[in-house]
Design brief:
An eight-stranded antiparallel β-barrel has the order 1-3-4-5-6-7-8-9. It has helices spanning 6-20, 138-141, and strands at residues 28-45, 51-52, 54-65, 71-86, 89-105, 111-128, 145-159, 162-173, 184-202. The chain is elongated, with a radius of gyration of 18 Å. By secondary structure, the chain is mainly beta. The chain is built from two helices and nine strands.
Length: 204
């Protein structure tokens, strides 16, 4: 199965974000962040398999609105490594994700802690099942798209036009990415993302 290049998807996603964003105001933040993804998988198979977490990278860019308000909104385009360790073999999956979340936060001067929830659309960019844990055709037939629920919290520290960010979120897969496979059923990704970043205020 052909995978779209990460760079092409990232550029297209940034263009989509820019064209759909509301009019930029002083409270709009453009930022970049990166960190660790600790992923696992839930699935049903016809035999017993041992699975454990896999650690990878997550990072990208984001737009955040609502610096001094109770409610806010954030969209992003990010690269995320997922998968799991199955029978001591890494199942490697990677996605370009576009998460959109609604935020509720407390503006406390230079700091604003928030909680948020939303959804993410992911496009599979690579797949590696070296020992064919899920069968020889897994990477050819695994779904090219994924929907996930997103829940978490962040804290922003505003230092003039510059801001520092800490973000922790849980991504739970909503659709079966193994729908075309016979050996495995109801395969869904799970991932904790811990990241830090820097943002820049836009507007006048």
């Amino acid at each position: 199965m052909n995978r779209l290049p990460v760079r092409t998807l990232l550029v297209a996603s940034l263009a989509a974000l820019a064209s759909s964003a509301p009019a930029l105001e002083a409270q709009t933040i453009l930022g970049v962040r990166g960190g660790v993804s600790v992923s696992s998988a839930s699935f049903d198979v016809s035999e017993t398999l041992d699975d454990s977490n896999r650690t990878g990278f997550v990072g990208g860019v984001f737009l955040d609105w609502g610096q001094s308000t109770l409610f806010g909104f954030q969209v992003a385009a990010q690269y995320a490594q997922k998968g799991a360790e199955i029978d001591n073999v890494d199942l490697d999956l990677a996605y370009l994700e576009i998460p959109a979340v609604v935020k509720v936060g407390l503006p406390l001067g230079i700091v604003k802690p928030s909680v948020f929830g939303g959804v993410a659309l992911g496009f599979n960019t690579s797949c590696d099942d070296p020992d064919q844990v899920f069968g020889a055709d897994f990477c050819d037939d695994v779904s090219s798209t994924e929907w996930a629920g997103v829940f978490g919290a962040d804290a922003a520290f505003y230092l003039g036009s510059l801001s520092l960010w800490i973000d922790a979120r849980y991504n739970v897969g909503l659709n079966d990415i193994s729908s075309d496979l016979e050996f495995v059923d109801d395969l869904k990704n799970r991932a904790w993302n811990i990241s830090g970043g820097v943002g820049f205020g836009l507007g006048g």
